[in-house]
Amino acid sequence: MDFQHEVIICIVNEGYSEVAMDAARPAGAGGGTVMRAHGTASPEAEKYYGITVSPHKEIVMILTDKEHRNGIMKALYAACGPTLPAQGIAFALPVDGVAGLGENSAAKQQENGAGA
Fold it and tell me: Which of 35, 38, 48, 103 has the most Cβ atoms closer than 10 angstroms to its Cβ?
């Protein structure tokens, strides 16, 4: 199946969502959605990686076309990677359908029978 859009999920320490978005925008992200979250890292994971993991997190979700995914993810890693204060991780998932995005979204919805 060929997906035209993907959602990038970037989980960072609390207070670093703007750092993530400031990195993602020049790489092609139009915007993002931020949600507060609480991490549940185990003491074993902290010992293995040699870092202290803050339980207070922010989840940045960025919907993008697949052409911009790699550039955005590289920018997120450079600005918010796991060895930086943001201690971020990012991953992308395919998106099956999108409504209300782009200049011609109303026309595309009508073509697909979703409008009117």
Answer: 35
